[in-house]
Design a protein that fits this description.
Keywords: Signal. This is SoxXA-binding protein SoxK. It is built from four helices and no strands. The protein is mainly α.
Length: about 100
């Protein structure tokens, strides 16, 4: 996937900052969305290890009671999972364009 496409996806996912977070409920919603996106990436057989690491960091921050950091990490994990979904779907047909003829 071109680097510019990944950057575009991450930017479109919205701001990812500690100040964008809040309560435990915010974290739970963000984490659930990230897990759902990661599960979809798994169905496409294109889960990124960075997504799993970011989900783990979100869980660790939540366990420590830092819901601002946990929510930000969960939102980042969701953006990564969505980028992996985009990669998987776009590469389904793009490989033909790269085929030597």
């Amino acid at each position: 996937m071109p680097k510019s496409a990944l950057v575009l996806i991450l930017v479109a996912a919205g701001p990812i900052s500690a100040s964008a977070a809040g309560s435990e409920d915010d974290f739970k919603a963000a984490y659930a969305a990230a897990e759902a996106a990661n599960k979809e990436a798994g169905k496409l057989r294109n889960q990124w290890t960075t997504t799993a690491n970011t989900l783990a960091a979100a869980k660790k921050a939540a366990d420590a009671g830092d819901f601002d950091k946990a929510t930000a990490s969960a939102k980042e994990a969701e953006a990564l999972a969505k980028a992996s979904i985009f990669q998987a779907t776009s590469e389904k047909t793009r490989w033909r364009e790269m085929e030597i003829r």
